[in-house]
Specification:
By secondary structure, the chain is an all-alpha fold. The protein has helices spanning 60-70, 75-80, 83-95, 101-117. It is 36% helix and 0% strand. The two termini are 32 Å apart.
């Protein structure tokens, strides 16, 4: 079995890749059956024909716009699967009765721009963000 992020061979019983630390099955750059580099949107490996374990790709545009318009609530982070950071942004806004919304809103706005420019380009599973 091979890591979906770095392509290194990993033990069948391993829970994480010892090379990059990513949980087994997460990501989408390499085939888990043969280790061949794959296309981010491919359903099957071109080399061995194995069905690639893959989640639906998240939209870069949707994540960026959520960050810009709802960043103070951390909605963009929930969308990308970064629940802990999303909760932090939400709590800053709610627990300060909206006074901290300026801080978390600015934080979310900047992250929204970073997502749209490609500086933040992966979801919590390591999958690339789709361009649509």
């Amino acid at each position: 079995m091979y890591c979906r992020i770095c392509g290194k061979e990993i033990n069948q019983l391993a829970a994480i890749c010892v090379n990059c630390g990513v949980p087994v099955g997460k990501g989408g750059t390499y085939c888990q059956a043969c280790g061949n580099e794959t296309n981010a949107v491919a359903e099957y490996c071109a080399k061995c024909g194995a069905r690639l374990v893959r989640k639906e790709l998240k939209s870069k545009l949707a994540a960026g716009l959520l960050g810009i318009f709802l960043g103070s609530l951390g909605i963009h982070r929930f969308y990308l699967g970064f629940v802990g950071i999303g909760i932090a942004q939400l709590l800053i806004t709610v627990l300060t009765c909206g006074i901290g919304a300026f801080i978390s809103g600015t934080w979310g706005f900047i992250e929204g721009i970073l997502i749209l420019t490609g500086n933040i380009n992966k979801d919590s599973d390591g999958n690339p963000l789709a361009e649509y």
